[in-house]
Amino acid sequence: MLGLAIACVISAVAWLYLVAAHGGFWLTDQRLPVASADPADPADLADPEPRRWPSVAAVVPARNEADAIPGTLPALLAQEYPGEFRVFLVDDNSDDGTGALAAELGEKAARDGGAPLTVVPGKPRPDGWAGKVWAMAQGLAALVAVAPIGQEPDYVLFTDADIAWAPGVLRDLVASAEDGDRAMVSQMAMLRAQTAWERVIVPAFVYFFAQLYPFRKVNDPKSRVAAAAGGCMLIRRPALEAAGGLEPIRGALIDDVALGTLLKRHGNRIWLGFATEVRSTRPYPSLASLWHMIARSAYVQLRYNPLLLAGTIVGLLLLYVAPPAGLIGAIIASAVGHGGPATGIAGVAGLDGWVFMTLSYVPMLRFYRLSALRAPGLPLIAVLYAAMTADSARRHYSGRAVSWRGRAATL
């Protein structure tokens, strides 16, 4: 019991730090900044928006997305944006007719006054490039190639084929970037949480991501923490060009975090927050599909380092499992008459840690419109994540390649 008591004390202290001093990671208050008006300028008071709306080009990597794009691409093409806007969809060697369907949707949108769509046929991936990053690079090259010299788009919007957009999102993104002199404005798309397993895994997935990359720290220019969310990344094109474009992150399997890190390291301001008007329509109907989604990148995030893997698994168990184990163990020990000082410490520290953990998870559950009664079950979800992380390493060492939309991401 002494060992468990020590573990519980360590966990309780760690939770106290995380809740009080880790960038408010557990809050969901980082929402898209609203453009501010200059009170000294009557024109700004009347309309606190850019006097000239910058040009924007969206790049949509798409591989075998015929099921998704009918429900997402029309909304992207119909964005209510006052400036010049066009979309480049990269058909990354799909075999389900994605490119032809996208072209058809683009023609229909054009008849309705939507943004122009260019379907870019994917080229073979060079050695050293991750699959999705290569698709993004082809879209970036295409948007530059079609623009007259000196008239390239001011911003590039990287998004995914499964992202559904509310009508005014692009306008708000650009206004926020311009108002705050931000080189990147990224929003964490609201993931689908409809099936039983999605409601268990998805909120925790976002919670763990925010714990790893606290959004407030990402948004603080003085902090070295950097990240982004790949479903919605508006980037100032000259800033991306000055940072070397996508070449420096060509092999990145977690492209969004790599891109946010690249831009921030070059002295740019970046911003990451939560969104309700940018939603992922990607379904994960079973535990197996969710397991694959997480396991394909967990060991990548740990840089294929066995020591980091071991530390992560031990850390998950210490942080999330020790508190309930200590409390339950103390209750059982006391009931059978084996209580002692260590038992009392384990019980009190375990209860404190479990309470901190539970309370910190409630805002995320509320964000996903789920009951706060789910929060005490976070330790069980953490065990699942530990198993997924271990399985990610197993897949790596067994030679099973990480894949993007049914294809190996790297050679």
From TrEMBL:
<keyword id="KW-0472">Membrane</keyword>
<keyword id="KW-0812">Transmembrane</keyword>
<dbReference type="InterPro" id="IPR017832">
    <property type="entry name" value="Glyco_trans_2_hopen-assoc_HpnB"/>
</dbReference>
<feature type="transmembrane region" description="Helical">
    <location>
        <begin position="342"/>
        <end position="362"/>
    </location>
</feature>
<dbReference type="GO" id="GO:0016740">
    <property type="term" value="F:transferase activity"/>
</dbReference>
<dbReference type="InterPro" id="IPR029044">
    <property type="entry name" value="Nucleotide-diphossugar_trans"/>
</dbReference>
<keyword id="KW-1133">Transmembrane helix</keyword>
<feature type="transmembrane region" description="Helical">
    <location>
        <begin position="307"/>
        <end position="336"/>
    </location>
</feature>
<dbReference type="Pfam" id="PF13641">
    <property type="entry name" value="Glyco_tranf_2_3"/>
</dbReference>
<protein>
    <submittedName>
        <fullName>Glycosyltransferase</fullName>
    </submittedName>
</protein>
<keyword id="KW-0808">Transferase</keyword>
